[in-house]
Design a protein that fits this description.
mainly beta, 45% strand, twelve-stranded mixed β-sheet, 3 helices
Length: 204
Amino acid sequence: MINKILIVICLLIIPGVSSSMQCDIATVLQKRLEKIQSFHTEFNQTVIDKRNILIQKSHGYVWVNRPDQLYWKVLYPDSSDLISDGKTLWFYNPSVKQVSIYCVKNILQNTPLMLVSCHWSNAWKRYHLLQKGDTFIFIPKELYSNIKKFTLNILKNGNINRFSIFERDGVCIRYVLAKQNPTEIDPKKFQFSIPPGVTIDDHR
C-alpha cells in the first residue's frame, strides 16, 4: 500500500555502467536535490496496467523538508496521510480508522520517495543509476517486493517535475507535480498525533 502512495525516482539502466560513471550521476542528482531544501507541491497520480488501461487516479499535496521530513496527503479518491519526522513514519487511513507506524530506516528500500526526501546517498548504492537528460533512472540491483524500476525528472534548478514507479506485473504508477513552491515549512507539519479511537498497527 505504501509503495503505491509514495513518490519517487528511477527507470532503465544499461548493464555495464561503470562505478565511476554511476558516482558521477549520483553527484549530479545530489546537487540538484540540494538546490531546494524544502517545498510544497500538488500532485496528480495515475495508475496504468500492463495493457495501458487507466485503473486509478488520485490527487493531493506533498510537503518536503530535507533531509528527512515528509508529509504526503492524498485527498481523492480516498483520504490518507503519510508523515515522516525523520525517525518515525505514520500511515493514517481515516476511512478505516487505522494508523500504521514504521521506523523510517527499516523501510527505506521499500519506499522510493525516501531516496528523494532524504540525503542518504549511500542508499543509492542499492540501485543501478543512469541519467538521460533531466531524467534519473534507478533499477534495484537485487529483487525485492514488486518494484522493478523508478524514474525521476528533476531540473537543474532543483524542481521535480514528475516521477514514475514501474512494477514487475506491468503496472506503472505516475506522479506529476504542479505549482511547486520552495518555502520554509514549520517542523510541526511533520508531526502526527494519533486520534482517539484509532487502531494502531506498530511495525517498529
